[in-house]
Amino acid sequence: MGDPVAAGVQTAEAGQAFAGLLGQEKAKDFLNRALAAGRIPHAYLFRGPEGVGKRLFAQRMAANLNCGRILKGTACGKCPSCRKFSSGNHPDFVTIGPEQGSIKIDRIRELIKNLSYPPYEAARRVVLLEDIHTLRREAANSLLKTLEEPPEGNLLILTVESSKMILPTIASRCQTVPFFPLRMDDTVRILMGEGLDEKTAELLARLSEGSPGRALLFRKTEMVETWEKAIAAVTDPAGDGRVGMLLQMAELIAGLKENLLPFLGLLRIWVRDGLMAAAGQGQSGARRFFEKLRAIDRAEQELARNCNRTLVCEILLFRLQEAERSQA
């Protein structure tokens, strides 16, 4: 199932190939040992939650396999090959992902044709096939034939979310590398490295449950800003006279569309933090927080029944405001 690591890769010091990447210690150990042994399979299956580093590991694997001058076991970052990987313009690193929800047969046929030719300039071409659970059946069957008899000089790295099903025949022809949610502190460090302030990074790290990729997607939607405005609205002491503000806020929240459920997750974090802060106030104090959680649960259930989003958000905000006033 494996073939020798391409010429030019210095395997003796391959233990630091993924230095600088936070988390995923098991994946690092597994792949580092493969590099150090000097043998790489023709196909890997990176299985794990979305946004936890599968693409980054595939890119680093490709860079290390094709670096012209390995330094201390990791790609040098300065040779022509490394510079092309850094700029995202290496001709022998190919990425294929779903288009309009699926990977279609035409893309797989084109890939198979290209794999029959030698790499342009690298010792080994690396192909990253992302979200292979979106492969249509005919595309999956076509890919299966390539996995059975892969052309030399190619490494296929397939990724799939841990909760998704793929053909067992595809999984059986790959070496599976498991990926897991990152630790909270690692997720926060990654998010702060992307320019988020510590408070926002911690909040999104908790919401994303150890997935920096998901957290950054949430950040792009301005979900945190909307969450802060919603909390300000329901905790406003003058809430009785600001009905219009709550209605406008409900429209803004409903506009989050597919991110509405994660937004409810942010509200749960707010309520649970309040509950922890209020520990020791007795059952009457805790009851108000549980009323808020029930209001959020009801909103989620109503959304699952395809009720009107704006109406659901309006009712939720008024229920939260009522619980907040009874708590004051």
Q: How would you describe this structure in keywords?
A:
328 residues; alpha/beta; Rossmann fold; 2 domains; five-stranded parallel β-sheet; two-stranded antiparallel ribbon; 9% strand; elongated
Explain how this protein is built.
- This protein has 2 domains: 2-180, Rossmann fold, CATH 3.40.50.300; 221-327.
- The chain is built from 14 helices and 7 strands.
- With 328 residues, the protein is of the alpha/beta class.
- Helix 8 crosses helix 12, helix 11 packs across helix 14 (309-327) and helix 13 packs antiparallel against helix 14 (309-327).
- The strands form 2 sheets. Strands 4-5-6-3-7 form a 5-stranded parallel beta sheet, covered by helices on one side. A two-stranded antiparallel ribbon has the order 1-2.
